[in-house]
Design goal:
globular, alpha+beta, 5-stranded mixed β-sheet, single chain, Sufe protein. Chain: A, 5 helices, 152 residues
Length: 152
Amino acid sequence: MDDEDLDELYQELIMDHGRRPRNTGTLPDATHHGRGHNPLCGDQLTLALKVTDGRVTDARFEGHGCAISMASASLMTQSIKAQPVEEVEALYTQFHALMTGGAEVPAEVLGKLAALTGVRRFPTRVKCATLAWHTLHAALHPERADAQATTE
């Protein structure tokens, strides 16, 4: 598969998750909550996690935003379910570094999240892709900033 085919596949995946996001809705028995807001474009996100025995057993989100923001939240929640919190934290660090130009992460590590790597070419959209991730980090660290994330 050449780069052009891969870009097209990634765009289709983002559009699919943007139009039909997975893991939306409330999570009544959530143990962790985070709220995120991107004041530049108005995207808003509320994330609920259920963490049991050091593992994210469920993740749901509600909110509104552009296709990239919603696709990122959808792909993120799929990626973190059933993962130990330590691995979720490592994935957050890797994804954030990748999106902000701090590191390259192999596609096999990212899985479907690799679809979002093309967003780096559009600096104003990076904040859309990272909103869910900042919200995740805030939810896992409620002692910081009242578990609110803002991408500025």
